[in-house]
């Protein structure tokens, strides 16, 4: 389940809320097996290594990138700009 670690934007504009379907976003993430101490199986740093300008982030289109599982999309849909979860 998703848990907010650092709150994001408190604004009320559309741009401040969760991303809409097909929006382009920059995402920074680390995926671990079993728990946060488990081995890393995927991360934005690994995926972004080919892009030196923003190597810690990946640019994705919400709900179109099939390399992310349903749990990742669920978390993205709950987040606001700048939020960490």
Can you characterise this structure?
This protein is of the alpha+beta class and 85 residues long. Helices cover 16% and strands 18% of the residues. The strands form 2 sheets. It has a two-stranded antiparallel sheet with strand order 1-4. β2 and β3 (40-43) form a beta hairpin. The chain is globular and about 35 Å long. It starts with 23 loop residues before the first strand and ends in a 7-residue tail after the last helix. The mean pLDDT is 84.
Briefly summarize what is shown.
The chain has 85 residues and is α+β, with helices and mostly antiparallel strands. It is 16% helix and 18% strand. It has a two-stranded antiparallel ribbon with strand order 1-4. A two-stranded antiparallel ribbon has the order 2-3.
SSE inventory with pairings:
Blueprint: E1 24-27, E2 30-32, E3 40-43, H1 44-48, E4 58-61, H2 70-78
Antiparallel strand pairs: 1-4, 2-3
